């Protein structure tokens, strides 16, 4: 018996569906990789920008200390001293700064040195591994904690509602006061 001419037409819908599904799957995978890479680059840039901002603040605070020979001979401490010395005017041998000097406080100096070491660009990994990203995030989190300690010791207040370059609120009311998921405003249904 001859093949029915309508058999091919009846299977046409399934054939086009399968073709479209396979094409969509391959195009989606390609677009997903591209979008993921762009998103990763944006987030990585934001994190390194924040680390650079914190690094700059550590250098400014270190430059406000009275100049003396450092007792800590670690590599990070020596690089910090070199960066501070680079901000000295060679003609007058004075700091190029209009900021008031900080009091000689060994505890504050230690916190600034640790902040510098946490945010130092040379020691931050650019590897895209789970361990390297986790280490970077941990260092950034610890650096933010050091910033808060140093600001309190120095007496610098961050304006209420200010945020860092990653969008985290710094200073002012705690984030718990502004949380969208505050349980006090939710009504329980029973």
Written overview of the protein:
There is one protein chain. By secondary structure, this protein is an all-alpha fold. It has helices at 5-10, 12-63, 75-85, 106-119, 130-154, and strands at 88-89, 94-95. The relative contact order is 0.10. Strands 1-2 form a two-stranded antiparallel sheet. Helix content is 57%, strand content 2%. The radius of gyration is 28 Å and the shape is rod-shaped. The chain has five helices and two strands, in the order αααββαα.
Topology readout:
Layout: H1 5-10, H2 12-63, H3 75-85, E1 88-89, E2 94-95, H4 106-119, H5 130-154
Antiparallel strand pairs: 1-2
Helix pairs in contact: 2-3, 2-4, 2-5, 4-5
């Amino acid at each position: 018996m001859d093949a029915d001419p309508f058999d091919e037409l009846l299977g046409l819908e399934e054939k086009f569906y399968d073709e479209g599904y396979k094409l969509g799957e391959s195009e989606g995978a390609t677009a997903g990789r591209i979008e993921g890479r762009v998103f990763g680059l944006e987030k990585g840039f934001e994190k390194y920008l924040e680390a650079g901002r914190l690094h700059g603040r550590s250098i400014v605070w270190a430059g406000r200390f009275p100049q003396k020979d450092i007792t800590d001979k670690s590599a990070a401490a020596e690089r910090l001293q070199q960066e501070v010395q680079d901000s000295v005017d060679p003609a007058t041998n004075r700091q190029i700064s209009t900021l008031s000097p900080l009091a000689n406080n060994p505890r504050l100096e230690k916190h600034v040195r640790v902040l510098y070491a946490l945010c130092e660009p040379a020691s931050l990994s650019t590897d895209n591994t789970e361990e390297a990203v986790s280490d970077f995030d941990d260092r950034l989190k610890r650096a933010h904690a050091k910033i808060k300690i140093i600001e309190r010791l120095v007496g610098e207040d961050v304006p209420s509602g200010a945020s860092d370059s990653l969008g985290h609120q710094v200073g002012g009311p705690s984030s718990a006061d502004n949380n969208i998921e505050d349980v006090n405003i939710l009504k329980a249904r029973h």
